Amino acid sequence: MPYNVLLVEDQAMPRELFEIYINSSEDFNLLLSVSNASAAFSVCENNKVDLILMDVMTELGHSGLDAAEEIKKEFPAIRIIIVTSMPEYSWLSRARKIGVDSFWYKDGQKNSILEVMKRTMEGEHIYPDETPLIHIGNATNHEFTERELDILKELTTGDTNAAIAERLNVSVATVKSHIQHLMEKTGFKTRTELVSEARSKGIVIRD
User: Fold this and answer.
1) CB of 55 within 8 A of CB of 17?
2) End-to-end CA distance of the chain
3) Closest to 78 in 3D by CA, of 67, 88, 89, 86
């Protein structure tokens, strides 16, 4: 019997590709395809779901990671693979923490995702070693420390250094120092340039 797959993907092209890949495999049956992560829990309540392919950013801003956490608590036997094209640095660690079975960066290759699906159903946990390499100014996202990425994410709020320092429980001087390091590494002249580029490339995304 093929495994029943729930697909949660709001972008038309990858959604159609996933549907084609799943339907072409004898190992999997496309149970349902939805565009909003908030619908996933209800589908699991009312259907026999074996595997979920879940995007992180779905329709109406609903988080696939939030949905995955809720589903894993109630239906731990359902396998979940997070699929995303965004290199946001915190998603890998959060997915592991909430018990997501596997994590796959979209690359458009049929055999790649089907292989991950099969291995996940066999009990493996497939995770990339790191986020995709993204160039930002004169640097790459892999050159930033985790704390620098924390600061960079907070900068996208437009808040003051003092507000960011309070939220992260560090000193204002520490925030300023990290910002300076980010500016030096990337070569950007203003915070606005830095934040705009980081946001547009998906290096940091506010939940």
Assistant:
1) no
2) 38
3) 67
Q: What is the pTM of this model?
A: 0.91
List 83's β-bridge partners, or say none. Answer: 55, 104
Cβ-in-10-Å burial (0-12, 13-18, 19+) of 132 comes to: middle
Sign of CA dihedral 101, 205, 141, 89: negative
Q: How far apart are CA 87 and CA 105, in angstroms?
A: 8
Q: What is the pLDDT of residues 134-177, one digit of tens each?
A: 999 999 999 999 999 999 999 999 999 999 999 999 999 999 99
Write down the pLDDT at residue 109: 66
Whole-number Å distance between alpha carbons of 3 and 151: 42
Spell out the residues 6+ positions from residue 204 whose beta carbon is closer than 8 angstroms to its own. 88, 89, 149, 152, 153, 156, 198
